[in-house]
Structures are given as C-alpha cells and as structure tokens.
Amino acid sequence: MGTFRRPKPERLAEKLMQIRVTLALSQNELIRHLGLAEELTQSEISAYERGLREPPLHVLLKYARKAGICLDVLVDDGIDLPTRLPSKPKHNI
C-alpha cells in the first residue's frame, strides 16, 4: 500500500451545496430525497458542504442522479455545474 494521499476535488463541497440550494432543499430534505434517511444525518451533510468530510462514492452517485448530471461533473474541478438543475446527463443510465 502506498503512503500517498489521493488528491481531493477542491470544488466538491461548493458543488454539493449548490445542488442542494438550486433544488431548494434543506439539508434534511436532501437526505430524504436521496433516500438516505437511515444512513446520513444533517451534520454529515453540513460537513460535506463545508469540505470537512468527503461523501462516500454511493452518496456522490445519488447526488449526481438527483441533479441529473454525470458523476464526473461533481468531482472534476474543471467542470462547472449546469445552470439549471436537475439537468439531463450526457449519458444513458
């Protein structure tokens, strides 16, 4: 196993908050809309949005699907979120 830390997306927290705000959801409403009421708490969503914690991949995938975007849009700092959410992803599910 290597000792190097993997690079983390610098804009992830900003994008997660932007998705929630654009969809006009509170943090608790977002948890319910993502279907993660048994798994996440409001404080975890807050930590994700402040960049203190990074969500697991399955949570990021739910965010992306709720926003109608591809997962790479969330994790690639060079790609901005669409102005309208939910959007239509450029791939077929």
What does this structure look like?
- The protein has 93 residues and is mainly alpha-helical.
- The mean pLDDT is 92.
- It has a domain at 12-75: lambda repressor-like DNA-binding domains (434 Repressor (Amino-terminal Domain)), CATH 1.10.260.40.
- The chain is 46% helix and 0% strand.
- The chain contains five helices and no strands.
- It has helices at 12-22, 27-34, 42-49, 57-67, 71-75.
Describe how the helices and strands are arranged.
Elements: H1 12-22, H2 27-34, H3 42-49, H4 57-67, H5 71-75
What is the CATH-assigned architecture of one domain?
A: Orthogonal Bundle
User: What's the assembly state of these chains?
Assistant: single chain
Q: What is the CATH homology-level superfamily of one domain?
A: lambda repressor-like DNA-binding domains
What is the third-level CATH name, the topology of one domain? 434 Repressor (Amino-terminal Domain)
Low-confidence stretches: none
Instruction: Tell me the distance between the termini.
Output: 34 Å
Beta-strand segment tally: 0
Order of helices and strands: HHHHH
Q: Note the main sheet.
A: none
**What overall geometry do the principal axes of the alpha carbons give?**
globular
**Count of alpha and pi helical runs:** 5
Q: Using only CA atoms, what is the Rg?
A: 13 Å
Structural class: mainly alpha
* Average pLDDT over all residues: 92
Report the β-strand fraction as a percent range: under 5%
Helix amount = 40-55%
- Broad CATH class of one domain: Mainly Alpha
